[in-house]
């Protein structure tokens, strides 16, 4: 039994209607970003990137200019050293070069990098621990490139995050030596108090209280 012409027309209309709804949903959910031209770049951060996820913002002095597109993991075949390339999607229409003659809308990454463009991890939320990528010109920092795995994708050099800088500074402080010196000082105060035999009066009580409190603090 053949399919009637009316049924064929109805099926065709249904299929076209379904496709139109799918297209409308894609446009609604994805917005104009689906059709916005983007440029890709890659960065290599030292250490742990825990908290950085796909879709994390890429900002330039607080202005969102893109997002994290992909986070990968690579190993050197000879040394097995690990490196983590983070791919960025940057929106050219968010960046304007004023006073220059530009025939296209490409971002001049090479010129920006020579002028000091650097990337670093930035804490977006203290509560969730989510990280973002912060771009800025830092001309007084070294230009160190790891090597982009794709020559067509420019590599933006990175600098240490504020947290890593503080961590490095704290690691140089000899906390153990300081604690030992303070313990020695506390022991000297205790011996002084004992040898005085209570002749120091109020000062003797204050010395004993200070020694006790300091010992508790050092233990903690």
Structure report:
The chain contains five helices and eight strands, in the order αββββββαββααα. It is an alpha+beta fold and 220 residues long. It has a six-stranded mixed beta sheet with strand order 1-6-3-2-8-7. A two-stranded antiparallel sheet has the order 4-5. Helix 4 runs antiparallel to helix 5. The protein is elongated, with a radius of gyration of 31 Å.
Structural class of the secondary elements? alpha+beta
| Strand order, largest beta sheet | 1-6-3-2-8-7
Helix content: 25-40%
Number of strands: 8
Count of separate DSSP helical elements: 5
Helix and strand sequence: HEEEEEEHEEHHH
List segments where confidence is low: pLDDT < 50 over at least 5 consecutive residues. Answer: none
For the termini, the CA-CA separation is: 88 Å
Largest sheet: 6 strands, mixed
The gyration radius over C-alpha positions equals: 31 Å
- Strand share of the residues? 15-25%
Global geometry: elongated
Mean pLDDT, as a whole number? Answer: 76
